[in-house]
Structure formats: C-alpha cells, structure tokens
Amino acid sequence: MDNSQLQDRLEFLRRAERLKDTLRSGHTTEGRTESVADHTWRLTLLVITFSDLLPNVDLLRLLKICVLHDLGEAIDGDIPAPFQTGAAPKSDKERADFESLLSTLPEHLKFEFLSLWDEYENVASHEAQIAKALDKIETLIQHNQGRNPKGFDYAFNLDYGKQYTDAVPLASQIRALIDKDTAANAAHSQHGG
Questions:
Q1: pTM, two decimal places
Q2: CA distances from 34 to 1, 52, 109, 120 (A)
Q3: How many structural domains are present in the chain?
C-alpha cells in the first residue's frame, strides 16, 4: 500500500475526530455535556458486556454497526430525540453527512460502512435490531445517571425507543430495570428535586 492510500485513511480518522466535540443533550455524572463519541464508546462497552447473553449474533458486525451508527453527526451535530420532527429528514441529512465523511476512504470501505449504516437505520438485520435497542438503553442509562439540568424531562424516557427495546428480549429485560430508575427520577424531578 502506498503512502497516499494510508494518508486517505488517516484523513478519514482526523475528520471523524469531530465526533469527540459533537455534543448530545445528556450529561455525565459530573455534569459535563456528553459527546456523541462518549455515547458511542459506552454503547460498544454495553454490547461487549452483554454479548454472552446475545445468542446467534455476529459480534464484529454488531460492534461495527455501533461504532458507525452516529458518525454522520460529526458534520452537523446531534438532534435530541424530543426535538426530532420526523425520522426521514434527520436520517437523510445524517446519511449525506456520513457519505461526505467517508469521501477519502477506498470504495470497498465506503461501501461496507454505508451498508452497515443503512442496515442500522433500516433495522435490517438481527445485529441492527440489537444495536438499535441497546443504543436506546445506553441513552436511558446516561439520562438516569447524569447530573441533568433542572427541568430535565425524565418522563419522556419512559416511552423513548420502546418499540426497539421491546423487540429484543434482553433489552426489554434491561429496560424494565432502567424504567424503575427513570420513574423514580421523574417523580423526584416533579417534586422539585
């Protein structure tokens, strides 16, 4: 492989670094605004932590989907779920941003990465179904764990992503535990806590 091909891949990695500065609406336990890269890291950790309880899964494919699923947000940022007015416009924009981010990669990697992104977006495989469900689980965990600003809408989380978490038995079981925390946080928040 010549140096220009290596440089093209390095350029992709340099551009992807923007995900570290792309902020989400959640907060860490210390109150710092969470980045999309923070979310992606813990989603992959969530997957490997529960991978022994996920039968018949291509773990490498699942991890690739998790790492790539929000990478398009490195271009124009994240739109918090409560502010999304429709899935198609966000999805179309995020896919176009993802494609532009991939522009320096060789064709076979562009194809693979876009195929995995589409698979996730369309929940087109068992791995994508799990990734989508655990993506929602990670968000719920962070919202419960983070030091959120006054008025944070915990109640929103009781329905957030339920169609995805209900579709994966393990995610549904985990969610039942998390929903107890969410309900407690919502009640505490309503009473001025």
A1: 0.92
A2: 37, 28, 29, 22
A3: 1
